[in-house]
Amino acid sequence: MTRSFNIIYTCFLALLFIVTGCTNHASEKEKATSTAAPAVPVRISDDGLTASCPYLTKDENGNTVLSWVQAIDTTGNFLMKYAVSGDGGKTFGEAQTIPTTSAVHPHDENLPKILFRKNGDIIAMFPVSNPNPKNSYAGLVFYTQSFDGGKSWTEAKQLAEDTINSIDERYFDMEVLPNGEVGAIWLDSRKNTDKEGSSLYFASTNGRKGFVGEMVIDTQLCQCCRTDLYLDAQQQLHVAYRGILNDSIRDMMHLVSVDGGKSFAKPERISADNWVIDGCPHTGPAMVSNKFGMHYAWFTMGGGSGVYYSQKEAGKSFTPRETISNAPAARHPQLSTFNNGKLAVVWDERGNDSTKPNNYIGLQIRNDNGAHLKTTQLTEANGSAVYPVITTIDDKDLLVAYTIKKEKGNEVWWQLVRPRI
C-alpha cells in the first residue's frame, strides 16, 4: 500500500469522526462511528499491474483465503492468485500463483473462485473467453485441482461434460456437499426452447475425478447475473439466481435440495419485484443462514431501485422486501453472519456526480432476525471501490475485499472491520 493513500485515508477518517462528534443530528456518519472501526485498507495485488475479482473463502483449517485475478504482464496475460491469513485476518501470507489458470478471463460478476475440501484438496474454477459464430461474447467455465496443498495443479478441464454442445457457460458457484463432494452450478446455453435465457446446470465431483452427472435444474435464467450455491446448517442445499418470468420479468428465484443435490424442489420467487427489462443487470443475489432461516440480498429496479433484503423461515413465505440502499446505482450485495447470527451486508454504490470517481463500499448490520441496526460506509466517498466480498473471522470480525478502479490498472484491496454491535 502506498504511503500517500494511507495518509489521505487516515485524514478522511479523522475528519469524519470530528464532524460526527460535533452534531446531534442522527446522520449516516454518526451511524458509521458506532457501527464499526474499519482498519486501514491494504493492497494485496501486485504493484503496477492490473488486478480484479477478489473472492473470500476458508481453507480446511478455517483460515481465511483471499483469491484474485492478477495480470502477470502488460500484454493481457492473467493468472489466478491466492493468499492465506493465518492470524485472524490481520495479515496475509505470500501469494500463491495457480499456473493452470492462464486462460482466465477477468470478470468481477463472473467471478473466479477457489474452494478447499475438508481433506485439503483445492479446486479453482474460472471463466475463459469462447467467442463463436452464435455468440461473440460467449465464455466457458474451466476448473483445475490441487492434491498437494497448491504445490502442483491438474490440467484445466471444462466444467460441462458435453464439451461439443456446451458453447456458452458462465456465472457459476461451488459448495461442499453434505457427503464431502463438491457441487457446482452454472448458466449454460444448452436448452430445448427458443425462449430467451440460459439453463441452470448442476454437477458434483466424484472424488478426484472431477465434476460429473450434470443435469438441468431450471430454465430461462437471466444470462448475465451471478448465481449463488449455499449449504445451510441443516444440510439443505440452496440455489439463488435471477430468473426470467413471463419472457420479460427478471426477478430473483430460489430453489432447494434436501438430498445433497440429487433432486431439487420447484423454484420460488423471492420477491415479486416485477422488473421488466430487456437486458442484463450484471448483478446477482446473495444468501446466508442463521437460526431464523435464510436471508437474501439483491438488486432490482422493479417497484423502486436499489439493494433489498428478505428473509425466509422454514415452512414460511418470504418476508416482504426491505430496503438496504435505495440509491439507483447500488449494486452487487454480499452477505455474511457474525456475532451469533447477526447479518452483515456489503455492496457498492455510486454517487450522483458522474464527472469524477465516486464509487464506495457500504456496510449494513442487521440483527439475527433481520431488523436493521446500523449502516456505514467502508471506503472513501470519492473513491472507486467496487464488487465487495465479505467473510467472518472467528464470529466477531469482518473481512471485506474489493476492487479499486484506476486509470492505469485496477487493484485488489482488503480491510478488517471490527463491528461495535
Automatic annotation (TrEMBL):
Q: What SUPFAM superfamilies would the database entry show?
A: Sialidases
Keywords attached to this Swiss-Prot or TrEMBL record, sorted alphabetically, are: Signal
- Per the UniProt entry, the signal peptide is 1-26
Annotated Sialidase domain residues: 86-274
Protein name as it appears in the record = Sialidase domain-containing protein
Q: Which InterPro entries does this chain map to?
A: Sialidase, Sialidase_sf
Output the Pfam families linked to this UniProt entry.
BNR_2 (PF13088)
Specify the domain of life of the species encoding this protein: Bacteria
Annotated source species: Pontibacter fetidus
From the broadest rank down, the organism's phylogenetic lineage runs: Bacteria, Pseudomonadati, Bacteroidota, Cytophagia, Cytophagales
Q: Which Gene3D superfamilies match?
A: 2.120.10.10
